[in-house]
Design a protein that fits this description.
With 117 residues, this protein is an alpha/beta fold. It has three helices and five strands; from the N terminus they run E-H-E-E-H-E-H-E. It has one domain: NAD(P)-binding Rossmann-like Domain (Rossmann fold), CATH 3.40.50.720. The termini are far apart.
């Protein structure tokens, strides 16, 4: 990326990097670490034209989630549903594009307002 004059690194985090969840110590700690790494790398790489951002999705409707018998259908979410994978992908595409050329060190939260309250 340095040789080509820049680029975009997009880390996938989670809402667990924004709020804590009981009984998920290791997962929560790792997601907070992803956010910290994103911000530190953004500062270090900006002079090279490299942007570094994190996407923090909320619970997302995927085959893996649907196959997990311990996961309950969404309740209490403002939109009343999980995110669709395409909605998370759209945020990633935006960060990869020139449309986000002045964004770096940012957390892009795609959680349907779950963490807003």
């Amino acid at each position: 990326m340095r040789r080509q004059g820049g680029g975009s690194i997009i880390n996938i985090c989670s809402t667990s990097g924004l709020v804590a969840f009981e009984n998920n110590f290791s997962y929560v700690a790792s997601k907070w670490a992803v956010r910290g790494m994103t911000k530190a790398a953004a500062l270090e790489l900006a002079r090279d034209g490299i942007r570094v951002n994190a996407v923090c999705p909320g619970e997302t409707d995927t085959p893996l989630i649907r196959a997990d018998p311990t996961v309950s259908p969404p309740t209490g979410l403002p939109f009343g549903r999980w995110a669709r994978a395409e909605e998370i992908a759209s945020a990633v595409v935006f960060l990869a594009s020139d449309e986000s050329s002045y964004m770096t060190g940012s957390d892009v939260v795609v959680d349907g307002a779950y963490t807003a309250g």
